Amino acid sequence: MNFIWLIVGLLFLGALFWFGLGGGFGFAEEETEKDYTVWDYDQGFDPSDRNPYGTFVLKELMDTGIAQVKLKLVESHLDLDQLMNKEDAIYMFLGHRNFMNDANVDKLLEFVSKGNAAFLAYHEIPIYLEHALFEEYIYTNGFESESKPAFIKVEGFEAHQIPFIHENDTSDFYWNHFEQGDFFETFDKLGTIEGKVDFIKIKYGEGQFFLHLNPYIFTNVNILEEEGLKLVEEVFSKLPEGNVYWDMYSSQYHYRNYYEKHSVLEFILNNQSLRWAFLTLLIGVLIFGIFASKRYFNAIPIKKPNENTSLEFVETISRLYRSQGKNSDLIKIKKQNFLNFVSHHYYIHSKELNPEYIFKLSQKSNVEEEEIERLIKKLNFGAENHEVSNDYLIETHKMLESFYSKCKGVSRKHEKIINTKDLDLKLMRKSKVPLAIIGIGGLVLFFGVILLTLGAGLGTLLILLGLFTAIFGYILFSSPLVVIKGGELAYQKWMDRHELNLFQLETSAYDKENQIFELNSRNEKLRIDLNDLSTKDQNKLISTIRNIKLK
After folding, report:
1. N or C of the chain: less Cβ packing under 10 Å?
2. What is the pLDDT of residues 497-533, one digit of tens each?
3. How many domains does the chain divide into?
4. Are 46 and 187 part of one and the same domain?
5. Cα(221)–Cα(235) distance, rounded to whole angstroms?
6. Helix %, strand %, coil % of the chain (to 5)
7. Same domain, 85 and 145
8. Residues 286-337: pLDDT tens digits?
9. d(CA 378, CA 395)
């Protein structure tokens, strides 16, 4: 039933999103130009492209730790917005042209001014960004390589001969550089091509911009050569430390194509009255969530006492040795457990179980010396001999239990209760009432949507009421009625939650006529209404409580 209702709920939410976001009443669609990357240098620089002018090799190198950076791809407008909240990060763009709009350029400037960095490698600097970085117009120029390699150098390293490869042969290429001017006096030169500057660093606020005019050097066909790989490593050595966020989204032009009809949500947000009604709805749901969280989540978690599971462990090991017929090994474990018990409770430590040890233990435990002496002889003989009969093992066990039951100053009841009460029981309430509440909430919500669509203000109130009712029904449906775990019993009939410590349980009574199960402890009384449970779960709860050994 839970699975079926989950599917129904998902389908209902899917229908709301379909109509709300435009699928049912028109839509607003975002389109992008088709991306061509196969063998075309002008459309290259895609990190997923293995062709010559893609940047797949660079992405793989960065994923493996080139320049000690971590790489993350920015593939959507949402990723781009989230990037602006990062710290100690590096924004990176490779391509011919960056199609980032003016608003996003402003965000990038703010991002860098906070102490981050931006590495931009493209032929054309966006005009809006250029005006923000430079006080005057910056001229860029270039030259034809005439099918010869170009000498490219990064400050502090030797120059490299970098050819432009086309169809497996060196080809003519137009290399870019900045025109020499006075502005270089305020910016740092980081690299040159044939003696002309093509790589600079610009301080902006607390951060830095790195501009490179020849993105070709980062493509697959160049990095696969030794000289090209060294050059790329030298370029990245100039960047500060931080995670790199590679912007793929801005390499294409994004625009919105609006059709005649628009989404329901767009219509609501463009209408002042409906917008306030929608905000009221959201605020109401938020308030409900806050109060619901206070009801169902404790501000201070309950710290349960540490459980001593040593006896449980010993019993498990004992069953293992008993099943294998190794009685001698089992007695060794019982002997060690006995010594640990004496050491922990009476602080008597001795490697030799001599008369002095027996005398001290007798004085503290109030068990006669003769009984302790016989027990120790039994344990020593059984531990030292390989062949021990089952009768000898049983007799040793009885003597141990006799000692544990007679020794004073030690209570083993708590450990025994934990062993017998190590329960993990969860009982769900009958689904009839919660499902009815969910159904009523769904109907009210449905009528509210219809009225809101028709322009009736009552629709907003019905939507809020329907949401609250459905959420309340779902909480009743999904939350258990009774939970027993770690010696704690929790009972939640409606919104109130009651808890009872089963270690303090004194009596329990079952009123069969009224279907009430009453539990009494030292400090409180708890009445559980069994009408909310199935017959099977009623019997399970009653038998579980009655099988608990009370103090």
Report:
1. N
2. 788 877 777 788 888 888 888 888 877 888 888 888 8
3. 4
4. yes
5. 17
6. 50, 20, 30
7. yes
8. 677 666 555 444 445 555 555 555 556 656 666 666 566 667 878 888 888 8
9. 9
